[in-house]
Every structure is written in structure tokens, then in C-alpha cells.
Design a protein that fits this description.
Structural class: alpha/beta
CATH class of the largest domain: Alpha Beta
Shape: globular
Number of helices: 8
Strand content: 15-25%
Radius of gyration: 20 Å
Length: 279
């Protein structure tokens, strides 16, 4: 079997559906950051084990979550706003059985794709599909780098899963999306400044066989583009065919452009603060 770990902070709108979709596991842990809504109540009512820790940063918080002890050697780690279809459940259970049969040369983690859902439809083109993320892994074989936009470092081979999970990233409301991305924008601005000051564009990574490396190279390039918000909108809506996502795709691309503008403004503020100037 597989243990399940869900990290939460005020996820009462999402948690029940998430828990119901992983009810096939008899070891479900909700690692909560002292929610002030009904998140903990919902988790306990569904029989989940609840452990609370004050959030400091994403890297250290997730690292701490892997140290609590699990019933099984394999861990499935969905976010609270993600749903796990039966087809993905079945594939994960089979992957774990196959890994046990393979022995020492078996994968230590598996990546899978997801479908970003917005306004009642799958945002296939605007969401840069397919994006491969780590969700199933052995916790003793994983560590994290960077405090935001985490990079998973896997000790051992990686596998891939064919099935998808569904990501309802807006289900807490547009206001919650803006609040979260307002926090992210400051961290992204700091990362942008650090890159512009100390680093260059990793051109070779554009040709890497790893999608994560290619995405990172594209991000480094984006730090240096003029009219960054407009460039992001054009890239997502036109180059990546976001217009094929219809009404929902247009609004999704606008939100991504707004997020880029938030980063640009934060970079401007940080630079002026460094110079001792008022904003």
C-alpha cells in the first residue's frame, strides 16, 4: 500500500474532496500549518492523522513533513486542491508493486502530469501542459532545494506515470489566488534580482532532455525580457495556443500576466530600497 501526506493551511473548501479521493489508503496524514478554519475538524472527521507545525518556508516545512513517520515506504503527496482519479490510484499501486519486484534498481520516485481546471474546463494549452511533477516517492530518498518553487532532488532513478491528477488551483476563490501569488511575487522578485546580478542564462538547458531544466532556462530568460507581463501573455495566449482554451483560457492568461506585473513591481521596489530611495 501507499501512505498519503497532504499539507494544509485553511483548506476547508478543498480538503474533503481530496480526502475522499485518497480514501483507499489506510495511512493518511494531514500536515497542517495551524489552520483557522474547519480544515483540522474535517481531517479528523475523515480519520486522518493530523500533525501541526508553524509554516516558515516551503523547503523546510516540506522537509519536516517527511520526518513524521509513515506506515508504508511509499508516499503519495497531493496538494489539498488536487483530486486523484481511480485510474491514477490504480497505476500508482501497480507501480509500487512493480518497484518492489525490481529490487535495488527500481525508481525512487515517480512523476505525473496534471490537468489545471478553471471555470469548469481543463486549461490544456495555457497551463504549459504537460508539466511533470513529483507526487509519488520514497520519503527517505527525497530532499528539497530552494525555499520557493521547490526543486525535488531524488536519490535514485525516476519513473513516470501515464495517468493525471486534477488541479483545482482557483477553488479557494480568486481572492485567495491573489493573496498567494502576492506572497510568491516577492520571492520571485528576489530570485529575479539574484539571477540578474549573479547569474547568466543556462543556454544548454534549453536542449536538456529534462522538462524541468528547460522550464528553468526559460524562466531565467524571462527575467531579462522587456515588457515581461505582455511577453508572458503573448507567449501563453498566442505561442502556446492558449486561445484554444476559450473564455477560461483568456482569463487564465490575463491572470498570469498580472502575476508577472506583480513581480516586476516588486523588483522595482527592491532595487529602490537597495538604493535608499522611496517607492
Amino acid at each position: 500500500m501507499i501512505s498519503v501526506l497532504i499539507l494544509t493551511l485553511n483548506e476547508e473548501a478543498n480538503l474533503l474532496s481530496c480526502l475522499e479521493a485518497v480514501s483507499w489508503s489506510d495511512d493518511i496524514v494531514v500536515f497542517d500549518s495551524y489552520s483557522t478554519d474547519r480544515t483540522v475538524e474535517i481531517a479528523r472527521a475523515r480519520g486522518a492523522r493530523v500533525i501541526q507545525r508553524k509554516f516558515d518556508n516551503e523547503r523546510d516545512h516540506r522537509a519536516a513533513s517527511l520526518q513524521i513517520g509513515f506506515k508504508y515506504p511509499w508516499l503519495y503527496n497531493p496538494d489539498a486542491d488536487e483530486l486523484t482519479p481511480p485510474a491514477l490510484r490504480d497505476e500508482m499501486l501497480q507501480a509500487v508493486r512493480d518497484a518492489a519486484a525490481q529490487g535495488a534498481d527500481s525508481p525512487s520516485a515517480f512523476r505525473c502530469r496534471f490537468k489545471t481546471m478553471f471555470l469548469g474546463r481543463w486549461i490544456r494549452f495555457s497551463s504549459l501542459y504537460p508539466t511533470w511533477v513529483v507526487r509519488l516517492f520514497r520519503p527517505d530518498k527525497v530532499r528539497f532545494e530552494r525555499t520557493i518553487n521547490l526543486r525535488y532532488v531524488i536519490d535514485g532513478p525516476e519513473g513516470t506515470l501515464r495517468q493525471h491528477f486534477e488541479h483545482y488551483t482557483f477553488n479557494n476563490g480568486i481572492h485567495a489566488w491573489f493573496e498567494k501569488h502576492n506572497r510568491y511575487a516577492l520571492h520571485e522578485a528576489r530570485e529575479s534580482l539574484q539571477s540578474l546580478t549573479a547569474g547568466g542564462i543556462p543556454w544548454r538547458s534549453f536542449f536538456s532532455r529534462h522538462a524541468a531544466d528547460r522550464r528553468r532556462a526559460l524562466k531565467e530568460l524571462s527575467f531579462r525580457l522587456p515588457c515581461r507581463p505582455l511577453a508572458r501573455f503573448f507567449y501563453m495566449y498566442v505561442v502556446k495556443l492558449g486561445f484554444l482554451d476559450g473564455f477560461a483560457g483568456f482569463h487564465y492568461c490575463v491572470l498570469l500576466a498580472v502575476y508577472e506585473y506583480m513581480i516586476v513591481l516588486n523588483v522595482l521596489e527592491l532595487r529602490r530600497r537597495q538604493q535608499g530611495l522611496k517607492l
